[in-house]
Amino acid sequence: MTDVGPFGLSVRDQALEADVQAGLAAVEEGLLEATKSEVPFITEAAQHLVRAGGKRFRPLLVMLSAQFGDRYAPGIVPSAVVVELTHLATLYHDDVMDEAAVRRGVESANTRWGNSVAVLTGDFLFARASHILADLGPEAVRVQAEAFERLVTGQILETAGPQDGRDPVEHYLDVLGGKTGSLVAVSCRFGAMMSGADDTVVDVLTQYGERLGVAFQLADDVLDIASDSHESGKTPGTDLREGIPTLPVLRLRERAARLGLAEDIALCELLDSDLTDDARHAEALRLLRAHPALEQARQDTVRYTQDARSALAPLPECTAKAALLELCDAVVHRAG
């Protein structure tokens, strides 16, 4: 038994393992090629996060989804490069919006070169993704455009916040469906679509990806509170410091409103204070790590992974399906 992919996914079939490893290696080459520019500075900035590594979660899903058709079809690797470039581009933009100092264990692009360079580098990556996409046909362009619209809409909705009377948790889960679920769903869709899989299989895998994508982000929310920077590759509590309410915070506020416990209300007041102060930020993290809201957020993550597992039920039993199911377990473990 050997390990493949971002979570140390155990693969028990040598043919599947070889296909996934070869595919991910080709994606890595494709990412480096796609981020080259005639201007050396642009190459350096564009390859900053590529060379920092990463989970390559989306390309892995492309490779596994392609197993349900012709896994050697020529569009599979380029489509995986497209989704990863798109993801990387959003990270450059997210770090500017969050004023993040660390990304994937290295200095963020905005810290190193400033916000303008970081934003423009993200735009450069979007352009390169679009260039590759054009060779994959009009249907692929349409699918990616729709996903990108959902992604941006999710980001805008997060920035705007819930409308009056809207449940903040429901609003947040809708945001995640756009911000994260959309691109993970496209990863599965592209893998199946480019391999020529049956339309029913494409739809099943797209639904799976949507639900797994939300679960993956919820696990990140938990990790951001519960982990140290060594585990997560970024500064813990970044969203907390910026006042961005992730699910553990929303569950805390929901509980405070429902039960009216003094300690919950006090923690909410602390979160509403100036958390750019390091001492307050550390105290908020400490209290949240011990609060039942964090465990509730973990259970929400489990629920979404269970939904993802259920979505795969119509697919025939095979090693690729087993690997996709195992990814659900890996996401739960990530939030554990």
UniProtKB/TrEMBL annotation:
GO BP, sorted A to Z: isoprenoid biosynthetic process
UniProt keyword Transcription regulation present: no
Cofactor requirements of the protein: Mg(2+)
GO molecular function, one term: heptaprenyl diphosphate synthase activity
UniProt key word Protease: no
Enzyme Commission number(s) of this protein: 2.5.1.30
Name of this protein: Heptaprenyl diphosphate synthase
Species the sequence originates in: Streptomyces collinus
Organism taxonomic ancestry: Bacteria, Bacillati, Actinomycetota, Actinomycetes, Kitasatosporales
